[in-house]
Specification:
The protein is 38% helix and 27% strand. By secondary structure, it is of the alpha+beta class.
């Protein structure tokens, strides 16, 4: 048995395509300089569902009735650029390929390259997300 009743709502939110994220593009470029070209694909997992049309098509292909599809942006906040770098690298398979010295080098380079997103509240970057809401067909 499913957890959604016939006619009930289903919704999901995923990050938009990497091209919609200027800060992440800068970060990935920095990581590639220190970790090699494979860093691009290892850091790209977030963006796999980033095309709103294709994302909504997946709902329709699952026999869901798409009610809403939209894109929104809100800030993602971190204590510092270093906190951002550790979080991003640590949440991907790239962490298994780098030693602490390489991660420190990425952090140092990212502090310079990403300084424009530092605020008095810490490090803040726009995070653009796609949202699709649908309903399960009535029985």
């Amino acid at each position: 048995p499913g957890c959604v009743r016939p006619g009930g709502p289903v919704a999901a939110l995923v990050p938009a395509a990497r091209d919609a994220h200027a800060a992440y593009r800068v970060f990935v470029d920095v990581a590639i300089r220190h970790a090699g070209a494979s860093a691009r694909s290892l850091l790209a997992t977030y963006w796999n569902c980033g095309d709103l049309d294709r994302f909504a098509e997946r709902f329709a292909a699952a026999d869901l009735h798409v009610l809403t599809r939209l894109t929104r942006s809100n800030p993602a906040r971190f204590d510092s650029v270093d906190d951002f770098v550790r979080t991003e690298i640590g949440s991907t398979p790239l962490v298994e390929r780098l030693d602490s010295a390489a991660i420190d080098r990425i952090g140092a380079d990212a502090r310079d390259a990403m300084a424009q997103w530092e605020t008095d509240r810490g490090f803040e970057i726009p995070l653009v997300c796609n949202v699709v809401a649908a309903s399960l067909p009535a029985a």
